[in-house]
Amino acid sequence: MSRTLMLIPVGAGVGLTSISLGVIRAMEQKGVNVAFFKPIAQPRGGGPKPDLTTSIFRQSSHLEVAEPISFDLAEEFMRTEQMDTLLEDIIARYEAASAQAEVTLIEGLVPTRAHPYAHQVNMDIAKTVDADLIFVATPGRDTPTQMKERLIFACSNFGGRKNKNIAG
Question: Which of 35, 39, 72, 138 has an alpha carbon 20 to 30 Å from 16's alpha carbon atom?
């Protein structure tokens, strides 16, 4: 049975793409048969562009990377209260992407002011695929105490200490 890890960004600018690339590379070096999956393409400034992490993996690795759902389509599903349909599409893509893998790394959606629902979408995806959660944050100008509080708050959105799927 394969294991699924989901990187959950605590905010924008946390280095999520770099972390994804590093985790995949480290697992490959250890001989782990790994897959990468980005469920929903993260919008980028300057008009419609392909998802950054997906594009990098396609250009720099041998991994077969599934096409993420476009953000506009995902937003349309959410706006029209069709979250179940969105999750069904995500699960179908996830199962195809992870079929041969020992470990599948999922990159969550980055919460922004324009996309405040990213935490809820990440939580729904994580629950649906029973992923272990790894929160990704950067201290920025936070003190260690402030950073700890931010991480505790982020974890609380996913069930807090009671959630046995929080791995890091």
Answer: 72
Question: In sequence order, which ranges of 5-105 are alpha helices (DSSP H)?
Answer: 16-29, 52-60, 71-79, 83-98
Residue pointed to by tokens 């980005």: 38
Residue owning tokens 């994804």: 20
**DSSP annotation of 11:** S
Calculate what percentage of the chain has a pLDDT beyond 90. 49
Tokens at 117, concatenated: 């629902």
- Please identify which residue in the block is written with the tokens 């959950």: 8
Helices 118-129/83-98 angle, 10° precision: 50
What one-character DSSP code corresponds to residue 160? Answer: G
pTM value is: 0.89
Q: Using one digit for the tens of pLDDT, what is the confidence trace for 16-56?
A: 989 999 999 999 999 999 999 999 988 766 556 677 788 78
